[in-house]
Amino acid sequence: MNAKQKMRHILDIIAGMFPDAHCELNHDNPFELTIAVLLSAQCTDETVNKVTADLFRKYKRPEDYLSVPLEELEQDIRRIGLFRSKASNIQKLSRILLDKYDGEVPETHEGLTELPGVGRKTANVVMSNAFGVPAIAVDTHVERVSKRLAIAKPDDTVLEVEHKLMKLVPKDEWTITHHRLIFFGRYHCKAQNPQCPVCPLLELCKEGKARMKPAAKTKHNKKNTKIRIEG
Length: 231
Ligand code: SF4
Description:
Blueprint: H1 3-17, H2 30-39, H3 45-58, H4 62-66, H5 70-76, H6 83-101, H7 109-113, H8 120-131, H9 140-148, H10 158-168, H11 174-187, H12 206-230
């Protein structure tokens, strides 16, 4: 099986496992999605959704975020990690949107990445989810799964992982693949406790096979111990 065939197999398996994978950050428009992704850095989507449930009721447009003192915005998002720098970035970003883009979120990658707190990953998520432009955003789950499945090398940068995925995944599947890899990493190939024993990709996953070995050894040792005790 060459690299493309292997990728095809992985894509088909994860499509079967997570046919409804989607963006789990609640939002109603590109601006809310940009704020939600910015808030999600080093924070779970679940926590972000709890905070934005109130936040998006109070702040609807960029001018709303600028109408309060920074301290008030900090308090409104205080349950989120790095809330001080995120609050500051939200206000700076809102100012730029008003000054340069008539209060709208720019629809270009360059425009998005110029905004404070918006990196390549956030820009990819916004471009693909809000504007329908194919993109593969590499977050912690996508990176971990890609490396475990040897789609990327262990020491590849996030950008290298993204480029390898873009090369192997058909362009019209970039966005859905991003979601499916996140679901696969979040609910199955988890950071701490990947479900290798029941994984349909175990056959082609060296990492999974290596992880299964200690378990087999431990079982074997336990059996031997039992035999010795009984003996
Ligand atoms: S075998 Fe284990 S490590 Fe490999 S993809 Fe499956 S769950 Fe992840």
